[in-house]
Every structure is written in structure tokens, then in C-alpha cells.
Amino acid sequence: MDEAQVQKFSTRREFDDYLQQVLAQAEHTLLMFDPDFALWDLGGSATDAVLRRFLAGQGRLRLVAHSNAHLERHAPRFVRLLKDFSHAIECRLTNASLKQLTDSFCVADGVHIVRRYHCDHLRGEAAFQTRFDTKLSIDRFEAIWLESDAGLHASTTGL
């Protein structure tokens, strides 16, 4: 494994760039947590293309949010992606006891991560090729996942 690369960021552009890098490097798993994914461009054409490639290559995406309203209203490409790859995408919603969680992160294959320390701010870090920097977030994600309920899903009406 290559030496870990950790990069700090504090702007929307940097967050977007690092998120795209993490998504592009994913081959097997993507774990995503954010209160509402409003700052994530999950409905954008570039993100859609990267996620389609990932999912077509047998990747699995697990996503947890406090609310799916933003994705339902502002990310029609993601909703279509969910319909097209419903077998490979699982979306969940946190229950009331987890609504106070305010961090935000995406982990790819257990070794690449982009995380914002608080969902209301853009300060964060991205780390590549490191299990050490992803372990805490993976453990948090699994705990959140176990305490969450079924969320956004494809249906005959499109959602």
C-alpha cells in the first residue's frame, strides 16, 4: 500500500474535488453519511457518470442521511441511478436518537476518505491509501447503519 496522503480543505471547490477523487477511486464499496447531502453533487452529471461506472463494476453503495428531501427534490439523476441499480444501492434514514450527528463523510474501499468535520462548515480533510484515517469513520458508519431505518428507494412511481 502506498504511503497515506492527507489533505486539509476549507472551500466548496476543494470539497467537491476531493469527493470526486474518492468516488473515482472506489472499486468495491462506498459508505456515505451526511445529514441531507445538500452540498454533495449527487445529482450532477459528473457524479452520475462516476457512480454508474462504479456500480456497473459490481460496486456497492450504502448511504445514510437524516433527511432524503434534498435528494428527492434536487437530484433526479441520483433517483434514476437508484432505480437503475437498486440491487447495489441501499439508502437509510437515521432515527430520532441520531439527529444530533453533524459530521459528513464518504469512505471508498476502506482506504480513501473525504470528511467534513461539521455539516454546516466546509473545513475537513481527505485521505488516500490509509486504513488508519478511515477506521473511525467506518466504525461510526456501521453503528449509524445499525440504528437507521429504510430510506430512499426506487418504486413504480420513481421513488
How many helical stretches? 5
Shape: globular
Order of helices and strands: EHEHEHHEEEEHE
Helical proportion, percent range:
25-40%
Distance from N terminus to C terminus (CA atoms, Å) equals 40 Å
**Overall tally of structural domains:** 1
Whole-angstrom Rg? 15 Å
* Main sheet summary: 8 strands, mixed
User: Any idea of the CATH class?
Assistant: Alpha Beta
SS-based class: alpha+beta
- Report the average pLDDT across residues: 92
**Unreliable segments of 5+ consecutive residues:** none
CATH fold-level label = Endonuclease, Chain A
Number of strands: 8
Question: What attributes does this structure have?
Answer:
eight-stranded mixed sheet; about 35% helix; Endonuclease, Chain A; alpha+beta; about 25% strand; single chain; about 160 residues
Would you mind describing this structure in some detail?
The chain is of the alpha+beta class and 159 residues long. The chain has one domain: 2-Layer Sandwich (Endonuclease, Chain A), CATH 3.30.870. It is 35% helix and 25% strand. The chain has 5 helices and 8 strands. Strands 1-7-6-5-2-3-4-8 form an 8-stranded mixed beta sheet, with helices on both faces. Strand 5 and strand 6 form a beta hairpin. The N and C termini lie far apart (40 Å). The mean pLDDT is 92.
